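#struct-pred
JK: can someone run the complex with protoporphyrin IX containing FE? inputs below
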Amino acid sequence: MTALGTIDSANLNGGQKLAVKYFSVALILFGAQVVFGLLAGLQYLIPDFLYEVLDFSINRMVHINAMVVWMLFGFIGSVYWLLEDESGIPIVGLKLGNIVFWIFTLAVAAVVAVYLLVQIGPGEHSTLWLITEGREYIEAPRWADIGIVVCLLVFFFNVAATFAKGKWTGIGGVLTLDLIALFGIYMAGMFYTTNISVDQYWWWWVIHLWVEATWEVLVGGLMAYGLMTVLGARRKIVETWLYIEVALMFGSGILGLGHHYFWIGTPEYWLSIGGFFSALEPVPLVAMVVHAVFDSGVHKMRSSNHPAMGWLIAHAFGNFFGAGVWGFMHTLPQINLYTHGTQWSASHGHLAFFGAYATINIAFFYIAVQKWRGNVWMSGGLIGGWKWKWSMVLLNLGMVGMTMGLLVAGYEQSQIERAIEGSSWAGYFAAQSHPWFQQGMFWRMVFGGMFAAGYALLVLDLLTIGKRETRPAQRPSADG
Ligand code: HEM
Ligand code: HEM
Ligand SMILES: [Fe+2]
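RT: done, structure tokens with the ligand placed:
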């Protein structure tokens, strides 16, 4: 056995070895997201920066697609991480899982290379198949789409078959059912129609139903496992909460889809359905905050992994504020009429994706690195503990600052472009050149820089944390 504090894959079970591969790629793609975000943000301030070399449209596309893919990699990794623990047996198709990991990673690299090398061209059928499908957030060309579905099916098979052969837990059941929905819905983004309303109608099935229903349920399952691992929370308690949260999420999130059907040419009844159900979406997010705070209190914050615990709490609050509060602000049609498609949406998009999903992935990175180093001490008085704390401060403060900058710009757009100028072409330019808009864009960059510094420190920390520790992990207090 190697010494405590040394990275050694013998410390991991089969699923966990595969998980750390997924986590490594996720972390690299997170870096790509940050770099291309900074480039796109700079182009708001200096419009001809990299013009015709690396256009805004490309930077924006790589920025948000890298985000979707790194989060998916993180989720797949997290499920592989807990699979053997939960089911009690080795993963059924681990070899296949490994092969698929490499295919998936190479396909992602190929798609990004094509985006960067081709950049512009005609919108033909061959473009759709080989270059890009042109659907925001899921722009992968058709060949890669099909590949993604195959990879995800293998993943689903591994999860379902392993639980079926081993034992089912509440978390296992929820995850398995959720994965059917998660991969099924992806296919709704693969239809091609020339009618833009019909196209958008199906596209939102992926975008909204993913992030507000299936991804939320998935992270609910991860949160339950996370709280048991780092706090020693009782299974009965976390699983009871999980069932309540899942019921509330599907109950509000499925028809909440209507808040994207206000102005795309769909029938008018969506105004009331979307407004009503999406207004209920914050309810399960409040439940999650109560759940996390309740469990932490019961266990007197005594956790075996302080960084992971910190990020799990950040997840509960980030999800509530980013999705719940920032989403609620513009979800009623009367308000959305003015805010639709302004920087207000970007403000919400940033805080929600970061708060709900970046956070919980980072928590799992820390859970993984602790075990990888032989279950080393990661509680109070940790050697070099300033790094995780500072990176957490910089990332969260950077994100809140960006969100505020974007919100100010969004308010200004709603007021000037929409309310005063009545959505005219001239109104658009009046809003874009107003000092409040431009200052919002400036401060977004300043806080974006802070976020990037936080990311760099996070990577450094994940590579070094626990290295010089020789104490074994603190055991979380057994119960409550
Ligand atoms: C973690 C969960 C969530 C994430 C990651 C998320 C993310 C996003 C993103 C990225 C957009 C912009 C989409 C575009 O490109 O047009 C958006 C739009 C929107 N979101 Fe969310 N969201 C979440 C939850 C919610 C919730 C719970 C609500 C309501 C309570 C909400 C309300 C809205 C509305 C109304 C829009 C449309 C904005 C517009 O008209 O431009 N979101 N969301
Ligand atoms: C490092 C700092 C970052 C900068 C400078 C940045 C900048 C940008 C820019 C310029 C856009 C295009 C906005 C537009 O079309 O008007 C954008 C879009 C977006 N970014 Fe970022 N970003 C950063 C980090 C992040 C992070 C960490 C996340 C989430 C975890 C994120 C999520 C998004 C989303 C969801 C959109 C699409 C928003 C929408 O369509 O409304 N970004 N970002
Ligand atoms: Fe939505």
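RT: quick notes.
The longest helix spans residues 196-231.
The radius of gyration is 22 Å.
JK: thanks, will look after standup
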